[in-house]
Task: inverse folding
């Protein structure tokens, strides 16, 4: 049996303020805006790292599934506000330089660069919607 040829095309993160999300992912992280779709006063933004056209993050309105109840929407909003609803791990070859640029841009810093006991060096920030982004140093 041969391995399947599968890659990650898109991951989804919630956003509750498209302009703030766009400013963070495009202007602070340097990602490209690849798609901006609006429907019924809602916006879905697709961004991704330059030079990686097949890797996308879709920043979408939270709790859009019609099967989600009002109580579930409230819980999702509360979890987003605490930074416990969604997360993503990014990587950079220059963690200290990346961290300095995040600080200069006013990013919500959760953890400064640190060596972790499991063998990586990383930092943590939150995007404008509260999503936790861990950034690892990748050599």
Result:
């Amino acid at each position: 049996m041969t391995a399947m040829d599968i890659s990650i095309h898109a991951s989804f993160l919630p956003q509750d303020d498209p302009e703030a999300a766009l400013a963070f992912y495009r202007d602070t992280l340097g990602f490209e805006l690849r798609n901006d779709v609006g429907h019924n006063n809602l916006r879905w933004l697709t961004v991704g790292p330059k030079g990686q056209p097949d890797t996308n993050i879709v920043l979408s309105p939270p709790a859009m599934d019609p099967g989600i109840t009002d109580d579930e929407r409230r819980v999702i909003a509360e979890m987003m506000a605490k930074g416990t609803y969604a997360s993503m791990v990014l990587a950079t070859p220059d963690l200290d330089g990346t961290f300095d640029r995040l600080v200069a841009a006013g990013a919500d810093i959760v953890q400064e660069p640190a060596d972790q006991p499991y063998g990586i060096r990383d930092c943590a920030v939150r995007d404008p919607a509260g999503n936790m982004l861990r950034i690892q140093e990748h050599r």
Q: What stands out?
A: The first strand starts at residue 10 and ends at 14.
